[in-house]
Design brief:
283 residues; alpha/beta; 10-stranded mixed sheet; 8 helices
Length: 283
């Protein structure tokens, strides 16, 4: 049986690179990569069992959380579980058939990539319009016919589409990394980090402090906390947290979760998992 892995497409995206790296190291049998047009559809594919796994970006070291990923995993009713976190170094390239920067009038890419290169763009291409696209590779299929356009993507993508690289790297910070989650409907067997999300019953003073206190009072360290609008009303939020321990082998965390379950409105536990850092040549 061939294991299907969903990722943001089309071919050549950083999500595909992360999916390929995960498959080669973690899957022993046959697999195939299946691109989807956006992150929401990628996650919906695993929730509806069209695929076994989905690889989605969660957080970038420069631009922070990927909001579509957070919003979608909260909204889906399927019991999504994280199999692994995958950290991929990101080295953006400016891809174009133009021979000089002065010829470029438009730059296409995913909003995160445009933001990660905004200082470089302001310095070297202040005259160029920046056009947000669905992925870093969406514009590459037509770039060869646009002599005044460029796209921000990876060296790997430029090679796949046989397009010239004008400048590399162009990201504003050299230690640019994106964390992806490998998500399925099955929990991982082991881990050293646990991720979850919760909403509160009311927007009351000290409400969030009480919830976080269940972990602090037991000596449990949170490595990430992120808020997202609940979309019910202005000022109403839900919270995503990462705890640096395995829920399966930590009585203190199980106790904290019992208290949080009783206190919070909704708690979604995405499971415990390990993190792998990917070979930077894939980016």
């Amino acid at each position: 049986m061939t294991l299907k892995i969903a990722h943001l497409g089309p071919a050549g995206t950083y999500a595909e690179a992360a999916a390929l790296a995960y498959a080669k190291t973690e899957i022993t049998g046959a697999f195939c990569l299946q691109p989807y047009p956006n992150i929401a559809r990628t996650l919906q594919a695993v929730a509806s069992e069209e695929v076994t796994l989905a690889i989605v970006p969660v957080e970038n070291s420069i631009e922070g959380g990927v909001t579509m990923t957070a919003d979608t995993i909260w909204q889906l009713t399927a019991p999504l579980q994280i199999q692994q976190a995958i950290v991929l170094p990101i080295h953006h390239a400016l891809i174009s058939v133009a021979t000089d920067l002065s010829q470029i009038e438009t730059v296409y890419s995913h909003p995160q990539a445009l933001s990660q290169c905004q200082q470089w763009l302001q310095q070297h291409l202040p005259q160029a319009a920046r056009i947000a696209d669905s992925s870093t590779t969406a514009a590459l299929t037509t770039l060869s016919t646009q002599p005044h356009a460029a796209a921000i993507s990876s060296v790997r993508a430029a090679n796949l589409y046989e397009l010239p690289i004008l400048v590399h790297p162009i990201n504003d910070y050299p230690d640019n990394q994106t964390k992806f989650w490998a998500i399925s409907l099955q929990p991982a067997l082991l881990g050293n980090c646990t991720s979850m999300a919760f909403s509160l019953r009311s927007n009351a003073p000290g409400g969030l402090m009480t919830a976080l206190g269940y972990f602090a009072n037991r000596g449990l360290n949170l490595s990430r906390i992120e808020s997202r609008p609940s979309k019910r009303s202005l000022g109403d939020y839900l919270f995503f947290i990462d705890i640096e321990t395995d829920v399966n082998n930590c009585p203190a965390l199980k106790s904290a979760l019992a208290d949080l379950d009783a206190y919070a409105e909704i708690v979604k536990n995405f499971g415990s998992y390990y993190t792998t850092i990917i070979d930077p040549t894939l980016s």
